[in-house]
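ugh ok fine here u go
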Amino acid sequence: MYELSLVMWVAINVGLALIPVGAGYAIRGLAGRTRRRVSPAVVPVIVVLGLVWLIFLPNTAYLLSEWRHWLRMMDRSNISSRLATDSGTALSFMTYTLFYLGFSSAGMLTFALAIRPVAHVMKARGANLWVWGIPLFLLCSVGVYLGLILRFNSWEMISRPGDVWAAVVSLMDHPVLTSFLIAFAAGLWILYIIVDIWIDGLSARLKRRRA
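structure:
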């Protein structure tokens, strides 16, 4: 029963993380990779896709926080004290550790894949990531906080905008928390750069093998 609920929970969270990936590539498909003018009829579609992309983007980084469930499992099952004497416990420990490693890796990958197509579009139009990335990663960090700590869902950005905005404004009264969110945003930026480079390297290697 636990395994079934775990699979459903993973499927839902990964599904939410894939939404900004799809929206990002849809934006690139509509806007193109060059400075060509976008048809006025397409602009509203791009704006809507951009809002969907921005609202659901924190769901990718949210997957990095799922290690808290691994820590709870370790504490609840007292696994650390049983590892040396029970081979079954060691197998369970390895299985769950690999599972959460794969889960967080999915978060890192979807995070980078969601940003990459939008970054290509922005770069083609002269907007450097080092400029617009500052508010982007900060918003993503705040979004993870809203979901992880305050338990807001992505769609509540639209259904409860007043409550969401009040929660964001209240951060000004908590300088330590705000500093942590800024540091987390910097960490997300570094993480994006690392995964982005890895994806480019993997893509280049695959192209060389095909040649």
